Batch of 4 targets.
Target 1
Amino acid sequence: MIAIDFEMGERAALDELAEKYPDEISIIDGRAIDGAMTHWTLVISAAGIAIPVIKSIIVEIIKSKKHKSVTYKGVKIKGYSEDEVKRILAAINEHQS
């Protein structure tokens, strides 16, 4: 599983993707103690990462730098380039085989 945290903002395209792939993608709203929404998290299953459209969207999200962080296997990753993201995704796909 990979989790990508976002500040508040536009997510309509990701909501559509989550509807299309409900077994692979979930979107979780983060809330403060008073119930106000503070952020949201895109959660993608390991199998979902292997789907080309999902993989390309992950890369685009990271290239856009609209996310706060990416977490994979308990490791939170911040501040990396597009090439590093591609290497991370390639490594994830290798480990799934």
Target 2
Amino acid sequence: MAVLVNQPSTLALTGTWADGTALPKTTMVTSSAHDAEWQRAWDQDGVQRNIIACITLPLDDVRAHAAGGVAELRADVLAISATGRADTTGQLALDVPTDDDDPLFAERLTINDRGDQLGVDGVLVPTVHVHYALLADTALFADLGLDPAGVHVYEQHAFVEGADCSGWAANQQGRDRTAATRYTVTSEQRTVAGRVRNVTIVDGDVSLDRTMPSGWQGQFCVRLTAVDAPLGGVASTVGDGATLALRGVSLRGPRTADYAVGVALDGTGFPAEWQLRTEWRSEATGALCVSASLSSDGSAEQRDATCAASARVAPEGMIVTLTARDPAGEELPLMAIRVPVNTAYCNLDDPYGYLADGCSTGFSLPLELPLAAGPARGAPESVRVVLQVSRTAVAGALWRDPSHAWAIGPLTSFAL
């Protein structure tokens, strides 16, 4: 572990492992040689350089707190210098080699979030990044009775709701909510443990179903299968090939804000025989809800209508169009207004949260719209409506309940 500071310091390191065990308090200091170089740069050039303090935690100590090959540590660092104190905190995940680590991976499988990426259709899509590197000449292929010279490795992945990775891989349980995938595969030679090895590097972005509700959760699973002859498709490798690895993580998305945009007739001035057609749409996806016709007619009165949608489907804003229709069926356009959509999350303890105003709850806007041909058709000169915007963003706390953020659990191996 390394800590960068801006001047020679003594650092006190404390922390808590994910299993609740406290890390014994440890002192870290910057080296005397680095301190002297820092002082020279400060005295001669007036430059305050960064200086590093390092510490190595014994592998056996880290391994005792690991689950699935990963140990998570919440670390607190207190730096004490000649000019004051600085307190900082952070969280890190340590990859822990185990005695029975399989020789398949040159770089272990990692699964991270890419946040909400803007799709080609203008909708924000939850996206997961997958990375790993395989030893293409691993002895594992021969151990499985495969011909190493002709091995083909197939990958399957899924974001599964309602089942774990074993149920998905063995019995097709759960619902796969992946939508699209873009992968890059490259090959290179590396020196691994003193030997030149052939390595295949895989990087992929997996887009999830954009219609999932706020706070979705499930298991993201990756299965690698090997055969020593090319088959007709990935599906046929499941029963005929050898499973090299079945890994997965628990995955939970943030609580994206939801919008309810309503239009209501204000007062009694709207003629009973007229209608006010209301439409909601997004430039990217088109209609967001079924259009509604408002009327003050006592026999079929509907004075308000509301459209509800996730902020993800209209990040550029929701467009509300109002059109008046007279008794003869002729339409008079009144207004088209773009309601701004805020995709920020509600972080109650984020000191910079006010910049994004992720906890805003919406607004109400009274409007008086001119009805140019109204008087000639027995209608008033204007129409009074109220635009009501309700924004719902469930609050999360940065460390105590990070419901505003992605949550990815430790990598777990599953058995078939």
Target 3
Amino acid sequence: MKRIKMKKHEIKPETCLIEAINKIEDYIEQTTGQRPTHREIADALSRFFVLKEIGEFIEMSRQQDLTQKESDT
């Protein structure tokens, strides 16, 4: 796996993140007829409403996980 050096820290994308980006690329290609550039994907993912939606989804998923763990005990 390729390591990416950033200003703040070094990251190593996990397979699940790479697969998610591939899904975005495939979806955009299917809907527009053209594969998006990495810059286009980065710009889209950095928009406030996308960040807000991702944040809300992660919070909801974490809450569901906690609720599931509590019901399992």
Target 4
Amino acid sequence: MDQLSAAFGRMIHSFFAVIFGLLKTVFLILLAALLVALLFFFTRYKINPFRMTSEQLRTAEIGCKYFDLFRWLLVDFLEREKHRGEFSEYGFTF
């Protein structure tokens, strides 16, 4: 019985090792693609990520709709203090 459980345990372990190895590879590829896209965004549109302002982001002319979406997400993030409590009368807690 011990031999059977040991063999079954090795089989299950090798199966999960392959699955987790594939998931790790996919995750690392997606992470690398995200970092390359962010690097391309900041270099293509000449935006310094350490000194960016919302006005600088508003005046940037961005043609790609996904980078434009990212720009407005950054503007919303930089102006989050201006909109604090905006939905408090509706019970939202943003």
